[in-house]
User: Which sequence fits this backbone?
């Protein structure tokens, strides 16, 4: 195809197919990639044969090795609504801008009183943010329970609205029902997890998805 | 580096005519560089798999606590520090009575020969029944939904064991997940995580020495 180079010239190679392939792959990865913000802590869950994919619409409590609880909602609208409710209950004021910024943040583990400062902090400052002690969940100051309760209520409300809308328009429902997920480090003492589970059971939530890393099922191999 | 324009570098040849001919060619090297840079970036940063999870349902606390219904084929598994497992079968008996001897704990560990073997042995009946159903399902003698329903029924059968899973305050989350996982692998359908009782805790402490 390409002309043979004349003597002394640089060897020529048709790069078009390679470039085509490279751009194809770039396009593919760009379109499939979903960006995740860095979680405030690394949680290394134990492995199991459970292969249920975590639904996109979830309310997650992660617990790190030291037993600190972190709270996150996948649905941005529910997250904003939950923050508004929490702001009212604990009388901690938030600006509209802060609420908006909060909806884009990953899970957090701070007291609501430190939350405005946490939201305003830059990405780098956030990773070393000091009073990141986990969301308080003891009986005198059970903020985690309120978060779960408000977050859950809002997520369900949004789901129901979407469902009603879909029914009205006679369309297929795309939204999923929100699920409660617990992601916990393998080395955490179970007694800490029990406290978290109690937060949920107190709110009459009895079904969870426990996040685990995947392991081969020995029964399938046979 | 492949398609370097010869026009500039190749001075000395009677170049002018050739340079004109090749002027339509574009040096693609920077574009390729950029494409591969982006490609590398996306390959390295993208995460394909969504997190996987296992579902677990906790018992709804009974509203008016009467007497607890007796559990048939109950096995209580107690988890404690250093990945140790103890179990006893049947009801907890603090003392020797006419119904039976005092409860004693037996130790297991997370190895294939110990816990897996014990549970497989206990749930042999259900495993065999499910294997039969799987065989039928494979030969297309059973519909998908019927197969699922029947497996569920076998798991819930009275003959199948019921596991009560209890932990003391030193057991780790990993122990609990590993144990539940082992129950799932052994096709045990009836299990529940509940609070430990004081006499059980005392017995563990006696065994582990604190």
Assistant:
């Amino acid at each position: 195809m390409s002309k043979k180079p004349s003597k002394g010239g640089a060897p020529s190679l048709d790069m078009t197919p390679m470039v085509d392939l490279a751009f194809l792959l770039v396009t593919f990865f760009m379109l499939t990639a979903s960006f995740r913000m860095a979680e405030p802590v690394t949680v290394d869950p134990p492995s199991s044969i459970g292969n249920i994919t975590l639904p996109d619409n979830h309310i997650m409590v992660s617990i790190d090795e030291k037993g600190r609880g972190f709270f996150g909602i996948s649905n941005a609208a529910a997250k904003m609504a939950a923050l508004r409710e929490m702001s009212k209950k604990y009388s901690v004021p938030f600006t509209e801008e802060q609420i908006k910024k909060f909806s884009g943040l990953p899970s957090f583990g701070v007291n609501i009183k430190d939350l405005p400062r946490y939201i305003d902090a830059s990405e780098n400052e956030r990773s070393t943010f000091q009073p990141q002690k986990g969301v308080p969940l003891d009986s005198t100051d059970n903020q985690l329970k309120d978060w779960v309760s408000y977050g859950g209520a809002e997520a369900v409300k949004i789901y129901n609205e979407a469902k009603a809308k879909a029914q009205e328009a006679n369309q297929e429902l795309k939204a999923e029902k929100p699920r409660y997920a617990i992601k916990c480090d393998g080395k955490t003492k179970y007694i800490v997890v029990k406290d978290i589970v109690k937060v949920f059971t107190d709110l009459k939530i009895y079904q969870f998805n426990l996040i685990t890393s995947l392991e081969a099922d020995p029964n399938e191999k046979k | 580096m492949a398609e370097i324009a010869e026009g500039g570098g190749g001075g000395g040849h009677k170049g002018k005519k050739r340079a004109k001919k090749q002027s339509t060619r574009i040096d693609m090297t920077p574009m390729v560089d950029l494409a591969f840079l982006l490609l590398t970036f996306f390959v390295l940063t993208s995460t394909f798999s969504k997190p996987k999870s296992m579902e677990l349902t906790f018992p709804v606390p009974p509203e008016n606590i009467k007497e607890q219904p007796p559990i048939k084929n109950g096995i209580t598994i107690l988890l404690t520090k250093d990945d140790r497992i103890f179990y006893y079968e049947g009801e907890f008996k603090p003392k020797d009575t006419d119904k039976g001897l005092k409860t004693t704990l037996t130790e297991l560990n997370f190895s294939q020969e110990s816990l897996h073997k014990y549970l497989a042995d206990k749930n042999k009946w259900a495993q065999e029944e499910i294997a039969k159903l799987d065989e039928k399902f494979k030969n297309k003698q059973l519909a998908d939904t019927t197969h699922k329903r029947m497996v569920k029924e076998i798991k819930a059968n009275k003959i199948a064991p019921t596991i009560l899973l209890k932990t003391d305050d030193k057991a780790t989350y990993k122990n609990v997940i590993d144990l539940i996982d082992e129950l799932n692998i052994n096709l045990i359908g009836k299990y529940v995580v509940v609070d430990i009782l004081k006499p059980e805790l005392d017995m563990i402490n006696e065994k582990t020495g604190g």
Observations:
- Chain B touches chain A through 51 residues (CB under 8 Å).
- Chain B is about 40% helix and 15% strand.
- Residues 80 and 171 of chain B are 5 Å apart (CA to CA).
- The two ends of chain B are 71 Å apart (CA to CA).
